[in-house]
Write a structure and sequence with these properties.
With 268 residues, this protein is of the alpha/beta class. It has eight helices and six strands. This is Transposase.
Length: 268
């Protein structure tokens, strides 16, 4: 058999040494394992980066049913969410910040639905688009802390409680303030954040200003959405399960931090 040349999305040796402990849910020599775990992970990264369908995975990668079954195990165990938490801490420390943030930014983006996700799609009147909303919380460096997927007709302010609860869970109750846009205005959203000891601060456009405006703090989450847009599988909502769409976002942000090499701070 000819030697496989590999793809740009393939994990490097150093990256694999870091991620393997998070992904080995059973022993490497377990009898039910028929395919190399690293090859399966490479196939998953290929799919998320290129946006291809499961059945269109190249033949030099493990068969798509095997990749999907392993992905489902990783997804249900939230492996990439746990990995992201550790990578985020490392990135913050290397940037001279505290390991856990005291401030976050909340926002959402609407993703066009497809026949696969259409059953849970909603219509976003502001964006004039039918699909799903991905509500996120990022730290002030743009690293993902929490993500929730809802139909696009769900208001942003309605997810404040769930986002703030998750943020405090993953940070150990360190977050004190959350910056948001005018879509989160209202006493209900303010109260939902206060329940979790977070001060919700609305950053509005200057009075009389129309069109795009680069707002303090708020630009960070927009950049994070730009990072996510580099992964074609996230360009539209191709997923039947909201959990899949959510965990693919964590995989994308894990891939970005791995590429930066922040995990090397753990090397002796």
């Amino acid at each position: 058999m000819a030697q496989r040349n590999g793809y740009p999305s393939d994990v490097t040796d150093d990256e694999w040494a870091f991620v393997a402990p998070y992904l080995a849910l059973v022993r490497e020599d377990a009898p039910q394992r028929q395919h190399d775990l690293r090859a399966v992970f490479n196939a998953l990264r290929y799919l998320v980066k290129t946006g291809c369908g499961w059945r269109y995975l190249p033949h030099d990668l493990p068969p798509w049913p095997a990749v999907y079954q392993q992905w489902a195990r990783w997804r249900d165990n939230r492996c990439f969410e746990h990995m992201m938490a550790d990578l985020r801490e490392l990135a913050r420390v290397l940037a001279g910040r505290k390991a856990e943030p005291t401030a976050v930014i909340l926002d959402s983006r609407t993703v066009q639905s497809t026949p696969e996700s259409g059953a849970r799609a909603g219509y976003d009147g502001a964006k004039r688009r039918k699909g799903s909303k991905v509500h996120v919380a990022v730290d002030t460096l743009g690293h993902l802390l929490a993500a929730i997927v809802t139909p696009a007709n769900e208001p942003d302010r309605g997810q404040v409680d769930a986002l703030c609860e998750r943020v405090q869970q993953v940070t150990g109750q360190t977050v004190q303030v959350a910056y948001v846009d005018q879509g989160y205005t209202g006493e209900d959203a303010e109260y939902a954040a206060a329940v979790h000891d977070i001060d919700l601060q609305v950053i509005a456009k200057p009075e009389g200003q129309t069109g795009f405006v680069l707002l303090p703090r708020r630009w960070v989450v927009e950049r994070s959405f730009g990072w996510a847009a580099r992964f074609r599988r996230l360009a539209r909502d191709y997923e039947r399960l909201a959990l899949t769409m959510q965990q693919f976002h964590f995989l994308a942000f894990v891939t970005l931090l791995l590429a930066k090499g922040v995990f090397r701070a753990t090397s002796p």
